[in-house]
């Protein structure tokens, strides 16, 4: 562990910010501490939040993707805890939930990843506890900083990423030959 950690100053906003906290509460006490830390950080910036629970860490990115398509949140906080067990399920859950969140982030979503991936319950308790490592607050702060960057650099533009610029696709030939998708 690093002897001295650095944290960016708290993000500041001129316009309201609304985050969705998505939590997998498999370990209820750990999840509750993560949520408490995240809520406190969001509220300290003057932002607001909604909370939704999903069955497990693998469903967190899916819920965020659905919310992005169907709602109007500025950013997202992913919370949960995966503790290593006796099978390879740990690696699958850790890797796939992280990969899903990363893919959404690369599409422009502002997500703070607070899904703990630990070897044992003691590690999880220390990381989740708002009075100790407070990783829930760290995930919320990350989401808020990404929202601030998005606002600094401007709104999303059409044609960015994998989205088509328009509802029409040019398949081949001239404009008159192109069917609409």
Notes on the structure:
This protein is of the alpha/beta class and 181 residues long. Helix content is 40%, strand content 16%. The chain contains 5 helices and 4 strands; from the N terminus they run βαβαβαβαα. The protein has helices at 28-44, 60-70, 89-106, 121-128, 135-153, and strands at residues 18-23, 48-53, 75-83, 111-118. The chain has a 4-stranded parallel β-sheet with strand order 2-1-3-4, sandwiched between helices. The protein is globular. The mean pLDDT is 89.
Helix and strand layout, with pairings?
Elements: E1 18-23, H1 28-44, E2 48-53, H2 60-70, E3 75-83, H3 89-106, E4 111-118, H4 121-128, H5 135-153
Helix pairs in contact: 1-4, 1-5, 2-3
In helices, the fraction of residues equals 40-55%
**Spatial strand sequence of the major β-sheet:** 2-1-3-4
Number of helix segments?
5
Arithmetic mean pLDDT? 89
**Form type:** globular
Radius of gyration from CA coordinates: 19 Å
Please state the structural category.
Answer: alpha/beta
Name the assembly state. single chain
Residue runs with pLDDT of under 50 for 5 or more positions: none
């Amino acid at each position: 562990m690093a002897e001295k950690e650095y944290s960016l100053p708290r993000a500041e906003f001129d316009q309201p910010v609304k985050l969705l906290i998505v939590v997998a509460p498999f370990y209820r006490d750990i999840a509750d501490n993560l949520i408490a830390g995240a809520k406190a950080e969001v509220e300290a910036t003057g932002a607001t939040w909604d909370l939704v629970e999903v069955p497990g860490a693998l469903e967190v990115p899916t819920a965020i993707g659905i919310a992005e398509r169907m709602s109007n949140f500025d950013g997202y906080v992913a919370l949960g805890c995966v503790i290593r067990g006796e099978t390879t399920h740990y690696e699958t859950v850790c890797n796939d939930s992280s990969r899903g969140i990363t893919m959404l982030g690369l599409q422009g979503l502002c997500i703070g990843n607070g899904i703990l991936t630990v070897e044992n319950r003691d590690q999880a308790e220390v990381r989740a506890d708002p009075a100790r490592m407070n990783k829930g607050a760290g995930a919320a702060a990350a989401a808020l900083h990404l929202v601030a960057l998005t606002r600094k650099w401007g709104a999303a533009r059409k044609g960015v990423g994998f989205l088509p610029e328009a509802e029409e696709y040019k398949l081949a030939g001239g404009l008159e030959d192109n069917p609409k998708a």
